[in-house]
Every structure is written in C-alpha cells, then in structure tokens.
Amino acid sequence: MSRAPFTKGEVVLAARQVAKSYGNVHALKGVNFDIHRGQVTTLFGENGAGKSTLMKILSGVIQPTTGEIVLDGQPVAFGSANEARDRGISIIHQELSLAPNLSVRDNIFMGREIMGPTGVNFAEEERQVRRLMEELEEDIDPLTPVEELRLGQQQIVEIARALSVDSRILIMDEPTSALSASEVEVLFKVIRDLTAKGVSIVYISHHLEEALTITDHAVVLRDGTMTAYAPRAEIDLEWIVRNMVGENYDLGAPPATTFGEVALSVRNLSVPDPAGFDLVDKLSLDVRAGEIVCIYGLMGAGRTELLETCAGRLTASGGEIVLEGREISHLSIAERISRGLALVPEDRQRDGLVQTMSVGQNLSLASISSFTRGLFTSRRAERQLIEHSIKTVTVKTAGGHAAIGSLSGGNQQKVVIGKMLATNPRVIMLDEPSRGIDIGAKAEVFKLLAKGAESGLAVIYTTSEVSEGLSIAHRIIVMHKGRISAEFDSTVTKEKIMAASGESVAA
Amino acid sequence: MSATTAPAHPARKSNFSIGRILLEGRAFFALIAIIAVFSFLSPNYFTLSNFLIMSSQVAIYGILSIGMLLVILNGGIDLSVGSILALCGVVAGAMMQGVELDWAGVILYPPVWAVVVLTIAVGGAVGALNGVLISVFKVPPFVATLGVMYVARGVALLMTNGLTYNNLRGAPELGNTGFNWLGFNRIAGVPISVIVLATIAILAGLMLSRSAFGRWLYASGGNERAAELSGVPTRRVKITVYTISGALAAIAGLVLSSQLTSAGPTAGTTYELTAIAAVVIGGAALTGGRGTVRGTMLGAFVIGFLSAGLVIIGVSSYWQTVFTGAVIVLAVLMNSIQYGRGGRKS
C-alpha cells in the first residue's frame, strides 16, 4: 500500500446532522461525527444508543433520513455498501456476515472475485488470503469452510475481508467480542500498522479499557445523540461511563414491598451448548414474591439461556426449576404459563409478536383459554381482556384492531409484556425488556414492573445497561460465563457491577 | 405517537379506498366478472341448472382447498392431497367390491356408512403421517408431502394393479347400496356434493374465526416461535392441520368416486396444485398466518367457473390451462402488493 503523504489528523469522513428513523423509532437524532486520517476514533455508547446505526450509515449499508455525509470535504450519498467500498470505506459488522458453507478464500473475495481468462483466478485469491493470514498471525487455511472455524477465527476472516480491499477508512463494530486476548493483541498491532499507513479506523467496543488502549479520539452516543467528544489525552474510564449512562433521567427506585415466599427457585441448573461447554453452569437462584431481581451481564453471559430454560424453550442438562414449591422441569411451556411462570423474550420481533395479527389478538394470545366458552371463544370476554390489558400496560394504540406494525417499539414491547401479564403470572421473567425502546417507554415499563412487584409479583429482568440494574431492582446479580459472579443490593455502584461482569476494570 | 399517526390514517384511507376495496375483494370481483362475461357470451351459462352442475364440480377442488388453506395458514404446503384422494377412492372402491378375509374364508361387504368412515380414517392417517414427519422429524413440508404424494399414489396403483374399480353401486342383496347417493342425489335440487362442501366450509370458517384452535393456527402460522412462547401447542396444531387436510382429501375422494361410480388410482393427479391455486387466489399468504375460508371458496369458484365457462363457449382446453395459469400469477402479484405495502411498518 503506497500512498501519498498525508496530514495526520485531518478530517476525512464526517457526518453532519445525520438522523435516522424507523417509523416512530428515532435511532439517531442529528449526530455530528468526524473521522480523522491515520487515527482511531472510538464510539462509546450503551445498547440502542445508535452506534451501529451510525456506522451503517457511514458505510452505505443504510441511508440517513436527514443530514449528510462529507467525504474529503465533498458531500456524498452512498446508495449501497458497494458504493462506499469503492470509495475506500469498509465495515466489519458486529454480526458476522460470512457464508458458512463457503471456504475462507471464497468468503474473503465474495462479490469481487479476481477474474482471469478462464474464470475466477483461485490461485491468486488463495495467495492473497495466505498473505493476509500471515499479517494477522493466524494459521487458517484459505480452503477451510468457514463453518469449521471457531467464532474467533471467523471474526478474523471477517477482519481479513475488510483488510483485503485496501480501505482508507475501516469501521470495526465490536471486532473483539469473540477474540482471545492474544488475538486482540494481534488485531491491535494490525490497527497500529494501518494507521501508520494513513488508514483511518472507527472502533466500537463494549470493552472500555481495551478500547482506551488503542483509541485517539472518543465519542459518546446516548439515545441517538452525541453527548460528549474528547481526544484520548483528556479522558479516562470514569468520563466514558458517566457520559454513556447519563444521570439526567430516573428509571425509578426499588419499590418498598414486603417479600413473600420463594416464588421461583433454580437449583444447580446447567444448560449445554451444542459445542460442548455449558451456557449456564450449575447456577442457583431464588426469587421471592414481591422481589425484583436484575440479572446484569454481557452478551453471551448466559442470561437468555437461563430464562429460556426456566420458561421451557430450552432443555436443561441438570438441575431443578421449582415454581412455588413444585418442580416444573418436565412441564411444557403452556403448562408453565398456566402455573404462573411467564417469559417476555429478548427479541420481540422474532419471539414476541405475531406480525400478521392485530394488537388485540397479540395481547390475548397467551390467555385464549380464559375467554373460551365451550367450543368457541367469547368475543365479549376477549374484548374486555384486551381493553383491560391496553389500559394496564398503557399501550398507545388506535384500538385492539390496529396492526401491530403501526406501534412504536416501546408500545410493541408493552404489548408483549401485557400479553404475559394477562395470564396472571406469579413470576414474570423479562429478557432485556428495554432493548430498542426510548427512555420514556423504558421508564414506563419499569414503573409497570415495580407496580407488579407491589402486588406480589416476582420479577426477574436482564439488562446489559448498568443504569437499568440500578433502578427498580432490589437485588442485582451479575452473570459471567454462565455463572453468578457477584451479587449486590441496590446500593452498589456502577463501577463495581461493571467490574464483576468482566467488562472493563478487570482487564 | 398516537397524535402523529391518528390523523395520517384516515387521510390515507380515503385516498386509497376504491383501490383498497378492489384489492381486498379481488377474488369476489373476479368471480362477478367471470360470471358476467360468460353470461354475455353464452345463453346457457347463466342458468340455475348450469350453476348447480358447475358447483358440484367445484366441490371436489373446494373440499381439497379448505384442507390446503389450513395447511398454508400454518406456513406449510400439502402436495399429497391429490394422491390421498386417489388412494382413498381406491380404498373405498376395494371395500365396496368386498374385502376377502382368507383366514375366515368369507368376503365382507361393509355397509356404505362404514366405508365412508373407514375411508376418512385412512385419509386422516396419511395426513397425520405428514404432520408427524414435519413436526416431529422436522422434514420440510414441501419434501415430506412430496414423498407421501408418491408413496400414496404408488400404494393406490399397487392395490388395483393399475386398474380401476368400476360399478360401485353395490347390490341390495349385499346390503351396501347407496354409494352413488353422494355424487348423484340432490336435496331440494342442490347436489349433495355442494351441501357437503358448504357444511365443511361453514365448520372450517367457524373453527378459524371463533375457536381457540383457529387462533392457535393463525398465531403459529404468523410467528411460530412467538406462538410457542405464548403457550400455543404448536406441534399439536401442525399435526392436526395435516390430519384434517388428509381427511378432507378422503372426503373429496369419496365424492369424486361416487360421482363417477368408479375409483381409479390415477384420479386426482395435479389436484393439489389446483387447491393451492384456489387458496392463493383467495388471498392467503403462502408464508402463513393470513387467509380466510371465504377467500378460498371464492378462489375455488373462480377457477371452477372460469374453466367451465371456457368449455361452454367452446375454447380449447389448452387455452383453459393458459387462462388458469394467468389468473394464478395475477393473484400472487396482487397478494404481494397487498401484503408488501399495508402490513409492515407504517
């Protein structure tokens, strides 16, 4: 890569007042963002802050609703990721975008195969892949199918693909989430080499300390707006956390309830992964009636698997799940719901809502038997149930007949919660209830949970945002690699929670 | 947010209202158009007797397409119904001809009601096999029912050695007369087959709109994971719809062999495709979760009345095939317009 001499630090790519809305959901609300030549700019922010959206806009994957992108001082509009790539911008996505059935070589050159006189020049492609793998100090044969690689190696392939196009600007969205410590070291060495050659890097990571070791600039996003910007020399960990989380909103405090009997008791629960190790590793947990427990942890900590096993979606390899004194491991999902155990799943589009049904039909879906009289459903009883649910969870909708897609993310989430509350549960488990919903809706959801606890409901919710753990929960449990790594009461500090999750300070 | 969407909705509704009515009632308007055009072209088309004859022909496809609708609502497909129809016709034919029990040295002639019950049971059993393959062994519906399609057809051919059972009228001395009642008799001038279709359609309609099972079916077809997590017994729903589809194919087989008073192993070939076409023309989404009995019935009548009309005005049967195909493509095109625009994010 021979390039013309460059001025380090000059702005190469910039976002000007970029906003992006999906229906009623505002993912970005007018963000300004600069990328400096030959330097690393790190983007910090909680889940749903708009980091990935911003990066997708900069790399041409999606188009902004308003605002403009400025490349080398010229406003540009990328119609597709390919257009952006032709201008020297490439992205390593958070979710791997590899074809598992194809070889490493074919993945790296997917869509831009090197053509020779007799078709694809496989030999040349293979030679280039070998050179890339040497550079990345990774011993991966170019002809191995990607599905045979472990996750970390797949991430390396993804990085190699981005490197193979000689980008001027390289966006890395959580590139280290599946890498081992030594692989991260190599990646950082590669990043330093690249910046020395004048390549600009945008880096996104949840590992705050790790990001601080490599970055030159820090930008913090919160709820779709940029809240802080500073060069590396002026910042520290505490500055990032403070700006990420913010202190100007209130998600409530633990309600003053008297705890009842133990409602849900999990004993030595293990959930196996197809690959062999345990996603949940001999975990024990008691939740009492009226108590709100928050399970905090990073992606892959085993929170979802724990809740889905309790709900009956996944099968445990060992241990007991006891609901109000009765072992329920052998029961079906429907039986567990009728005994009073309800799950609000993490991905509401995939697991929570039926898009082809109306708001009302979604709300009544889990309690059909309660308004079935003999062979037929009673329309009147169903309407009462729907109206009651809409009122209790305060769904803003034109009525039960409205299409589910017409609601905002927060109201959709309330529908999923309302659906499970309509089954009159004793224990409700919510997996990331605040994912992808705005602050106002978040506060309402939490208020709803606090109200439930006051009437004797046992509440368990998971989160990967510390501020949400420090709100209504009486008890905060930190999960790390399938185990409980720490347990706190509601007076704990953010730093302690983050440290226990293996997120930052521990490194 | 309600403040921003509420005014936007009525405005859009009034702009699109005529287009929307035409789009949503397309099967109905297509049927009206077909009847109008053929009534104009042929004086024999718009007569009560012709409508009854056409309807009794539609009955076979109509019964199949109700079963197909249930399967498609579940997000699946059932390619085996044509073969199940033939197999069940042959089974009924064999029973009418007498079941020889070698070990007892007698030939049994079951009464017609027993033939009907046993035949429906056979159809249901084959359908249940589809359901188990798909829900328990996770064979994709297309492949599972394709396999069963071949197997059922093969068994029907084996049973008869490729021949056809003729003369299923039974004999008074054997006590098994009345098989042709289904196909030939009329109540108040209406063919029995049409009454059978209407009964099944009403029951299926009630089941879909009013019963818990209907709600389970729409939910699991719309989003199986969400339905399962809401306590819907998705596996049971799946096995049930394929069983019903098989049983309805058996009823269609009975009606057909009764109309012809013969049962052949090659009957009903490609009927499954006609049934799928009726469901699609009726506005159901092949991805599952959307569709009604009313729409499917309209779809079946559109196909039936169209081909019958082409026969009456003397158009070559090759052209019928072309027209039917064009109608199907048009219907799917309109489906994608309807669901592609309205359903998603506002």
UniProtKB/TrEMBL annotation, chain A:
Span of domain ABC transporter: 13-248, 264-506
Alphabetically ordered keywords of this record: ATP-binding, Cell membrane, Membrane, Nucleotide-binding, Repeat, Sugar transport, Translocase, Transport
Compartment(s) where it occurs, according to its Swiss-Prot or TrEMBL record: Cell membrane
Gene3D superfamilies assigned to the protein according to its UniProt record, in alphabetical order: P-loop containing nucleotide triphosphate hydrolases (3.40.50.300)
GO MF, one example: ATP binding
Keyword presence, DNA damage: no
Record-linked InterPro entries: AAA+_ATPase (IPR003593), ABC_carbohydrate_import_ATPase (IPR050107), ABC_transporter-like_ATP-bd (IPR003439), ABC_transporter-like_CS (IPR017871), P-loop_NTPase (IPR027417)
Xref: CDD domains: ABC_Carb_Monos_I, ABC_Carb_Monos_II
Span of the signal peptide: none
Membrane topology summary: Peripheral membrane protein
Any one annotated GO CC term: plasma membrane
PROSITE patterns xrefs: ABC_TRANSPORTER_1, ABC_TRANSPORTER_2
PANTHER family noted in UniProt: CARBOHYDRATE TRANSPORT ATP-BINDING PROTEIN MG119-RELATED (PTHR43790), D-ALLOSE IMPORT ATP-BINDING PROTEIN ALSA-RELATED (PTHR43790:SF3)
Protein name per its UniProtKB record: ATP-binding cassette domain-containing protein
UniProtKB/TrEMBL annotation, chain B:
Keyword field contains Transmembrane helix: yes
Membrane topology: Multi-pass membrane protein
GO CC annotation: plasma membrane
Superkingdom of the source species: Bacteria
Compartment list: Cell membrane
Key words, A-Z: Cell inner membrane, Cell membrane, Membrane, Transmembrane, Transmembrane helix, Transport
Pfam families: BPD_transp_2 (PF02653)
InterPro entries reported in the protein's UniProt record: ABC_transp_permease (IPR001851)
GO MF: transmembrane transporter activity
Entry keyword DNA damage: no
Transmembrane segments: 21-42, 48-72, 79-99, 111-135, 142-163, 183-208, 239-257, 269-286, 298-316, 322-340
Protein name as it appears in the record: ABC transporter permease
